[in-house]
Amino acid sequence: MSPAEADPHAIEVHLDRILEERGMTLAELATQVGVTNVNLSILKNGRAKAIRFSTLTRICEVLDCQPGDLLTHRPQHGTSGR
Question: Residue 18's domain spans which residues?
Answer without folding.
Answer: 9-72
